[in-house]
Structures are given as C-alpha cells and as structure tokens.
Amino acid sequence: MIINFSKRLLKLKVVRYFFTAITATVVDVSVYFLAYNYVIQKRDMHLDLLTITAPTLSLGISFCFGITTNFTLTKLFVFKESDLRTRYQFIRYIMVALAMLVLNYVLMSILIRQIGWYPTPSRAFAAISIGVLSFTLHKLYSFRVSNTEEIEEP
C-alpha cells in the first residue's frame, strides 16, 4: 500500500519538481555554508569602489552550484517531455533563475539586515519560499511543450 502510494505520488510532476528542488537546495545551502564559513571565512571582499559582503559573495558561489544541479535534475526527471532544444531550455532556465536570485537576495537582505537572522538559515528560508513561483515559471516558460496539451506519463 505504501509502495503504491509512493509510486503514484512520484508520478506527479509537482512532487518530482520539489524533490529535485530540495536536492538542489541542499547542494546550494551546503555550498553556501562551506563558502561562507571556510572559503570566504566570513570576510567581505573590498574592491576599489565596491564592497561585496560575505553573504552576497557566498550566495553567488552557491547559486552556480545550485542552478547547475537544479537544471540537470529538472530536465531529466520533471519536464522531460519538453520539445525545446536544451540550449533554449537552459537560457530560459537561467533567465527565470536570475529573477529568483534577485528575489532571494532581497528576501535574504531583509532577513539578515532587518530581522537579524543568521545568513545560512536566511538562505534556506529564501530558497524554499519562492519554490511555487519557480515551478510555475519553469513549467510555463523554461520547459514548455509547443503543443497545447502536455504529454502525460503512463
């Protein structure tokens, strides 16, 4: 009974999407933690005219790892019926992901600077909070199917 329920649940696209998103988020947040604490060592980067804070720099590093993981898993396990070429999927995916990055940055800034949360929990909360919007945009834009009816899996 539990196995049958699990199989039916995994056939749902939204469940597979959130499973892949959770996996990519774990990669992202883990890389964020490692970058912030051990690579950057919680130090801001001071350039001539600009200072990049340690949380912002860590976000940029973790974003690269998270987006690569998420695109690959999403393409292979969630939206495999999309008939767009992979390069167009990736370009669209990046566009949506960059918009989500801006939302993550804004939310993290509020959580860290205004509310006083620690950077790593702020990153995790921000990533989880935009999941529904991200799924919708990827379904309708990044991995769309050109005909009006989606192909459902048997």
Can you give keywords for this protein?
154 residues; disordered C terminus; 6 helices; mainly alpha
Q: What's this model, at a glance?
A:
This protein is 74% helix and 3% strand. The protein is mostly helical and 154 residues long. A two-stranded antiparallel sheet has the order 1-2.
Please count the helical segments.
6
How would you describe the shape?
globular
The count of DSSP E runs of length 2 or more, i.e. the number of strands, is 2
Instruction: Tell me the Rg in angstroms.
Output: 17 Å
Helix/strand order: HHEEHHHH
- Mean model confidence by pLDDT: 86
Low-confidence stretches: 148-154
Helix/strand structural class: mainly alpha
Largest sheet: 2 strands, antiparallel
Strand content: under 5%
Percent range of helical residues: over 70%
Structural domain count: 1
Report on the structure:
The protein is mainly alpha-helical and 154 residues long. The protein is built from six helices and two strands. The protein is 74% helix and 3% strand. It is globular. It has a two-stranded antiparallel ribbon with strand order 1-2. α2 runs antiparallel to α5 and α3 runs antiparallel to α4 (86-115). It has one domain (2-142). It has helices at residues 2-11, 13-39, 54-77, 86-115, 119-129, 131-142, and strands at 45-46, 51-52. The two termini are 19 Å apart.
List the helices and strands and how they pair.
Elements: H1 2-11, H2 13-39, E1 45-46, E2 51-52, H3 54-77, H4 86-115, H5 119-129, H6 131-142
Antiparallel strand pairs: 1-2
Helix pairs in contact: 2-3, 2-5, 3-4, 4-5, 4-6
